[in-house]
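Quick check before the chapter quiz. The format below is the same one you will see on the exam, so make sure you can read both the input and the output lines.
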Amino acid sequence: MSDQARLDAFVREALTAGRSRSDIRTVLDDAGWPSAAVNEALGRYADVAFDPPVPRAAPATSPREAFLYLVAFSTLYLSAWHLGSLLFQFIDLALPDAAERPWGSQVARGRIRWAVAVLAVAFPVFLLVSRRVLLDLDPPRTGAVGRWLTWLTLFLATLVLLGNLAALIYQLLGGALTLRFLLKVLVVALIAGGLFGYYLRQLRRMDPPEPRP
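Here is the expected output.
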């Protein structure tokens, strides 16, 4: 029997015996079980007064839900990328680099048009699909696809923030820090940081921590 199966069996027997969740968590913590594993085992059973313990329904992912999440996150990534590109081009136009070629402003305007076109399509779709997901699903019932994509978004946002910080330090050490570069770093930090904060809150709603005694 695996450790997780042993833990699940113990939690079920303890709940059947009438032990409180806080008591079960305390003895398992004292026995060295990881808090995440304990919360997962306790989370398998509804917090209702009934004997035997009532198992929670496992979140299932329907093809429709998978489709909605894939569209929502795909359009989110497109919107975030092209919003950053749009703001970068505005910064380049406002603070031109003397080393740029004469037609650099024309290239920037072309990129602005493309970024606006993508945002005009992708962002409304993201809002509509996200609203549909929120109306249809409670965060605690989010299936595997939604949870994986949420974790993936956190992972990507973390990589972007770390890379952004590394680029800032690199430029600082090289003495090449300019206002133009600082504004671009700020744009990346705001977009990636905003996504990280929002989806971290979503994960906490999906998997709320068990109250501690």
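If your answer matched, good. Residues 104-136 form the longest helix (33 residues).
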